[in-house]
Amino acid sequence: KWEKITPEAQLKDKGYMKFGNGFIIQWGHAADELPFTSSDDIQSTEIVTFPIPFPNECFQVHVTTLNIGDTGGVASATVLKTMPTRTGVEFSAYTSDDGLYWIAIGY
User: Fold this and answer.
1) Which residues are within 8 A (CB) of 36 and not within 5 positions of it... i.e. 6 or more apart?
2) Is residue 20 a contact partner of residue 70, using CB atoms and an 8 Å limit?
3) Tens digits of per-residue pLDDT, 37-72?
4) Is 70 exceeded by the pLDDT of residue 3?
5) What's the helix, strand, coil split of the chain in %, to 5?
6) Any idea what DSSP says for residue 68?
7) 47 neighbors 30 (Cβ within 8 angstroms)
8) What is the pLDDT of residue 76?
9) How far apart are CA 94 and CA 78, in angstroms?
10) 26 CB-near residues (< 8 Å, 6+ apart)
11) Rounded to an integer, what distance in angstroms lies between the CA atom of residue 52 and that of residue 36?
12) Among the ranges 39-43, 95-99, 103-107, which has the highest mean pLDDT value?
């Protein structure tokens, strides 16, 4: 017998979806949290706290940088500064970026 199972979710700009088998997808953006903290004129750091902690492990985090004034081509890259934990991740980016969007998966 099949039953309809509604996953637990927070469907907002920074949210998550938690499935019955424990799999979790989380997402968000850091555009509202700018400026990034900066240690120099080029690089900056953005610390992201996930909406909910992963109970076991965060498998992957993917990030896309927003650069509103870009006229073509890639001028910078955003990278993971630390390995993701169950509660968050730290990114390294250029201070000229206008924000970033991220997605994390785990269980």
Assistant:
1) 30, 44, 45, 46, 93, 95, 97
2) no
3) 555 555 677 889 999 999 999 999 998 887 777 667
4) no
5) 5, 45, 50
6) T
7) no
8) 64
9) 7
10) 15, 16, 50, 51, 52, 103, 104, 105, 106
11) 22
12) 103-107
pLDDT digits (tens, 9 = 90+) for 13-22: 999 999 989 9
- Indicate left, alpha or beta for 90 from its phi (over 0: left) and psi (-120 to 50: alpha): beta
Rg of the chain over all Cα atoms, to the nearest angstrom: 16
Listed in sequence order, the residues at least 6 apart from 27 whose beta carbon sits closer than 8 Å to its beta carbon are 14, 15, 16, 101, 102, 103, 104
CA distance 82 to 97: 19
| Tokens encoding 6 | 């509604």
